[in-house]
Structures are given as C-alpha cells and as structure tokens.
Amino acid sequence: MKTRTADIAVIGGGAAGLTAAARCAAAGKKTLLIERLSRPGGVLQQCIHSGFGIHRFNEELTGPEYAHRVLTQAEEAGAEILLNATVMQIDGTGEVKTLTVYSRDEGVLLIRARAVILAMGCRERCRGNLGIPGERTAGIFNAGLAQKLINEQGLLPGTRAVIAGSGDIGLIMARRLSWCGVKVACVIEIMPYPAGLSRNIAQCLEDFDIPLLLSHTLTGIYGKKRVEYVTIAPLVNGVPDLAQEKKITCDTILFSVGLVPENELSRACGIELDPVTNGPRVDSSLMTNIPGIFSCGNVLHVHDLVDFVSDEADRAADSAVAWAAGERPGEAAITVKAGKNLRYTVPHRAEAGKTNHFYMRASTVMDKAELRVTSPEGRIIFSKKLRYVKPAEMISAAFPCPEESTYTFTLENC
Amino acid sequence: MSIIYDAAIIGGGVCGAAAAYRLSRYDVKTILLEKESDVSFGVSKANSGIVHGGFHYSAQRTLKGRLEIRGNLMYDQWHQELDFAFKRCGILIAAFKPEQMEEIRRLYEQGVENNVPGIELCTRERMLALEPKLSETVCGGLHAPGGGVVEPYSLVFSLAEAAQLNGVELKTRFKTVSAVNTGDYWEIGSESGEKVQARYVINAAGLFADEVSKVFGGEEFVISPRKGEEYLLDRLSPARPEKVIFPVPDEHTKGVLVIPTAGGTTMIGPTAQITGDKTDNATTDLNKKSIFALAKNMVSGVSEKDLITSFSGSRPVIEGKEDFLIQISDKAPRFIQCAGIQSPGLTSAPAIAELLCQLLQEAGLFLQEKTTPFILPEKVPAIREVTAEEADKLFQKDPAWTHIICRCEKVSEAEIRLAIRKGHTTLDGVKLATRAGMGRCQSGFCSLEIMKLIAEETGTPLAEIIKRESAGTIVTGCLGGEKK
User: Is the confidence metric ipTM above 0.90 for this complex?
Assistant: First the structure.
C-alpha cells in the first residue's frame, strides 16, 4: 500500500470538486482530487445543452464546456487529479485525516491530508426508492442514465416515453427525446407546481407541446418484456384518485423525482447529516461537525445552478486553505433555523461579527415575498424583497451577522 | 450422430442445478436445459433466501418436512465446497399476542420431534435478549439457531458452475416444447427447434413443471403460482436484525418476515397471493403498505425512506397439494418429477438433489462415482468484504480489483469481468452474480459502465445488450439508426 500526503484532499471531481481543487491549488496548497470515474466533470459531461456559467463566467456554456473551464483551472493551478479512484473510508479523527482509496492505477492508497473537502455530489432517486408498483421490465430509467445513454453513447432508450417528475433533468430529457424522434407522451408531477426551473418548463415542454400534468402520480408500470403502459392518477386531497386512473401507452419511463446527496461515506466517518437536505450539517465556513472536513456542492444540498455550486466550492476551499495553514475559524455560535415557508437553510450555524452566506429553499410557491431573518426576540436582523419564490429555485442571502443565539429565516407574504 | 446424454435436467433453478451438481460426481453424461439466458432466473431468483429451521412441517408426515430438515443440515458442506453467501444466523418466531403461544408450543414440539438442533422455547425476555431489534410488544417465541439466510442466485450460479467444471453441459435459451420417447431415450425439442437426446429426464421446471410434465405425457397436475412481494431496505437501515424474524404462521403462509439478507441488506416480505398468471411479477401499493405496517410492528427502525427496491416472485404450488411432488413418473418412462417445489424448496435443495439421484438409480440409471478428481470452483473474493491489505494484494494480480464500478455495493471491475466470463452476459445476470447495480442507486450510475464491460468481453454491441432473456434489450436503438 502506498501513502501519499497532501495539504487538502478533495473527494469528487464534478463542478464542486474541480472548482474547490482549483482554488486550493491556486492558494499554494498541495491539493489532491480523487475522482471515481475515468474522466472528471461529473454530471456536466452528459449535459450537452447550454445554460451553464451565466452567473460565473458571464457566458452561456454547455456542461462539457463548463467542466473544461474548471478542469483547466484546476490543472493550471497545479491540483493533482486521481482518476478511477474511489474513497472507501475516511478516518477523520486527529489533526491529519486519512483516506483509504482504491485506485485502478495505484492499488490501495492511503492519503493523508490536513483538510478534506467533500464534493461527492448527489444521486437520482429511482423507481425502486419510491416503491412504484408494477413490473420490473426493460425500459425503466433514471432520467440521468437515459441522458448519458443518448448524449455519450448515442443510444436511444425507447420510442415513446413518459417522464415521471418534473425535475430539471427530466425536463431537459423531454426536449432531448423529442429531438431524437422519441415521442414524449407527458410529464407528470406529484406536486401542484413544477420541480424544475421555469426556463426549462418553457423551453423543454411548452416549445414541444408536451403536456405537464401537475398533481398527478404514477400508480404502476406494466408490461411483459418491456414497458407497455403506465397508469397515472390525479391526486385528490393528497391521495391518488383511482377512479380517475388512466393508462398511458409507452415503452419507456424516465424518472426525475429528486436528487439525494451521496453521503454514505460521510455518514460512515461520523459526520452529522441534516435529515431535510440529506447533506452534512455545516457552519458558515462550510465545515462539518468533524474539524477539518468541509463540504460543498450537491453533496451538501442540491443546487439549482452549477454557478452557485462553484461559488460555494470557492468558500469551502477558502476555509480549507485557512485550516490547512493552521488558522482556526471563530466559533459559529448562531443556530440557524428554517421557519415559515422555508424547507431548509444552509449553513446550520453562523459566525457573529462577519458576513455569512446563506442558501435556502422555499417549501411553497409565492408571488412577492419577503425573506426575513429574526432574532429570538423578534427583531428583524435582515430582510430582502423577492419578486417570486419557487421551491425549484434556490434563494441566497449574504449579510453581516450580529451576535444572537438563533436566527430564524422565514418567507412572509407582502 | 449426436450425443445421447444419460440425464437431461429441465430447469436451471436451485433444484435443477443441485441435481446437476450432484450428478457431476458420477460417471454419467448430464445436460442442464434452461429457457432463460442464465440459470436461477425463475423461482430461485425471487424468494426470501431463507434456510428454514425445520419445525414448520412434520418430518414424519410430509416429504417437504423431511427434506427441509435434512437439506438444512447439508448446507454446511455446500458452503464449504461452493462460493455463495450463507449465514446460519438463527431464526426466531415471535408471538405478539398471548394466544399465539399455543401455536408456538405446537411448532416447538414439532421441531423437537423433527430433531431440530438447539430448538428453544423462549420467554419474552429471552426473545429480546436474542434479538434487541424485536418490538417490545413481543410476548414470547421460538428460537431455531440452525436456521439462516442464503443468497439464492449466487448459490445456483455456484452449483451450475461447479457442475460444469465437472463435465455437466449447460444449455441456456432452451425452452422445452416437445419430447419423443424413442424407446431408448427421449428426444427433447426446444422452441427454436434444437434437439437434445437423453435417456433419463428430470422435470425441475419450477412454475412450468406442469407444462413440461404434459409434454412428456407425465402426471397431470396444475402449478398454481402463489405470488410473494418483497421489499428491500438499504444496508444502512437501522432495522437490520441479527436473526430472521418470523411471525406466528397461519394456515397458508409463514407470514411477513424481517430478514437480514445474506447480501447485507434487510428485506421485508413476502405476501402470498394466488394469481393464476405465472409471468405476473407485479408489486402493488396495497401490499407495500401492508408489508411495511406488519414489519414495523415486529422490529424497530423499519422506514419507507430506506426502501431500495421491491420485487415479486411466485411459488410453484401444485393445485390441491401443499407438498412437493418428487417421484419416478408412473406414466412417462425414465421421467422423474421434481415439481411443486415451493417453500421450503431452497432449504431442501441439497436433500432434493440426493433424492433425485436415488430415484434415477431406482429407475435404472447406474451411478458410479468418478475416479477422476472432483473439481471445486475457485472462491472469488468480494472487494467489499476484504481488508485494504488484501485488496492491495489483489491489485498486484490485476489492477481491475481496485477499480470500483458499483459504488453502492462496492463491486470491482475484476468481479464483473469474471462474472461475464463465466457466462453472466446480461445486465441482470451481472447484477445477481456480483451485486453490481443492486444497491441504493439501483444501477443508475453503473449500468452503462457494466454494459461497456459486457460489450468489451463478449463483443456484443451496446445496443444489443439485454437486461435478461425475458426482458430484452436495454435500449431500443441508436441515434440515426446506425448500429454501434
């Protein structure tokens, strides 16, 4: 077994990991990035549509272009990238962390680093996780897998598809399938509002006359060899109304029903997770409960835009760089809570006396809302008017934080 | 002149494969015929994976009771010889109402009569000490330390592999549709027109044993599929118990169990429903709800949030008969029936194979042990189970060992390539042989990687790789229509 040392080890070579590695290396730290696949870039590589980088690069890039940018930055800054290498275990005890890595090129590696950045991304929730009834035939795909099959291999997943869930990958795939001559019968969404971005609803469904059935659920998948039809039903008072159940003929069903941060590795090394985000609980330096282990990107919470993933990765990198240099952040003593109309806020603890960055998601659709941050006594610490609020779109806020025991974030009608 | 086999076994499930394995010790030419593209893809694929304790049925009054207890005891030898996941973790029957203790006592006495090793009648306190995950509402029960769990498909794969190493021929994609008795041998025809000649035939066709019996002019019976749904929980589920937990059985079923599977996950199920359709493998929302409700009452920590997947399989029950039908046919010559192998068929399989060989001898096939050495399959390590030091040693032999393809179940490229080289050339075949794709992402990440390895190893274009024989190709074509 070989041993390698680094100042900072970054786990995961998607947008978050590459951005963080670039920043760490640019700050002069010896940085080692560990990526399990044979090519860095993560999910960006299969997202051949444009729309990436508008905020960060002031340009509309495709996924592979965005990946290329951040990869080039990481390489030019001198970060070392290990490919075909999987972190099996993290030992987070002690000043120096040890990662056990299985690598195709080097066998078993022990990587010792002063700081670790978790950037493992997320996985798609699948049919099996939801327990959708019916048969297990061919023709059942996660939207992301179907996207990879088409965009990376030129393979067609089917000829007539139904898409379950209106997440962004599902919407993008509705358009992609239409372009490939695959008929998309409909997109069904269990919630009364879409899960994906508005621009994707317009560009991927409306432009192609693909019906979006809101408040509908998939009640079964049937067929002998391949999928032959699915059954759907509208939700009435939150339960499927089986009297209105109907069959939709298709040979393919794609699932775009949510993303789950991949934190099994984090969990195994004792990192506390937030049951709402499924990501680590972090302070405003994006450090987990284990000192020296930081987290950013979709493994921390699922983002809507890659630009924000990179912004967050920059902040995790800055914290890791400071940590590796021996600096210790001030105590993040403010407990941050998601209140009315918010599903969650990240980070979970804030540090008084400096500007903290917060990301959050609404739990409902609102027109004209005010984001309000209040102290336990009801004093308004920060407020911001929002033109509209949707669960699909992340809300961000950054403000200097006065000392308080608790901040409660809420969305108020106005 | 084509070869005339001494024995043809129809059906590559656990009984067929076990019979093939046993016959491979003797100086006879045997062929195993399977309609799927791999063995174990019928009843043996989708069941609870339990090695039962030997107390549910009377060994004196039922054939299945007798074979269950004997089969259970024979598992250790199989486990020594073959490469499959098996653990004698023990079985508990938990009573949750005082009036159920009467049935517990009856089962205990039956177990004692069957000579079940170590069977124990337990108080509430003893039950909770044996299994801390049990619900506090338990009021007593039964403990059979010799019961356990087995990964049924890896068992069948290993049996078939070992049989082949010792000269048995395996013919897949052979669906038996005709049989002609020439007087000396049977000429067996497949759906695609292939012919195989064999002097003796074993009908181990599972759900289709009634149809095969008919083809040979054997006994007339009807296999009535009794469907069971199972729900699989993440290996990190806090519900995973140490022992298999059964409720008190009713007249028709052993009830919904909580199973610490041999593969490391937790499984809850099965249901028992007569469907009338042998190809119905649908799961239902109603049963999902009822299984979760029942399991939650039995152990703590069961949650829908940990659900990975669900599946169903059917037990091949002979209509009007709750027991196995294993006998020399009274109607078809040189034809041995091995039908109605419902629960506890998996447990009984080693004993069933032994009995089938006896019956072949009685029917006139001379079985003499080979003088050549018997070859056992090499045990393939699972990278998720070995230490880092061992993993590094494997890497020295082949770098593919430290290349993880399935992140959820931690399966290496080396394990996948080995499985493909052994003939598991479908996506589902690789999954059952290695567990790649069986974890929490349900192959969302590794499907394409595995397809690429299959393509590389077999030369099959990606577009033509199948999920399994009965499901067909993964994709329907290529962009622009060209073949890749």
Answer: yes
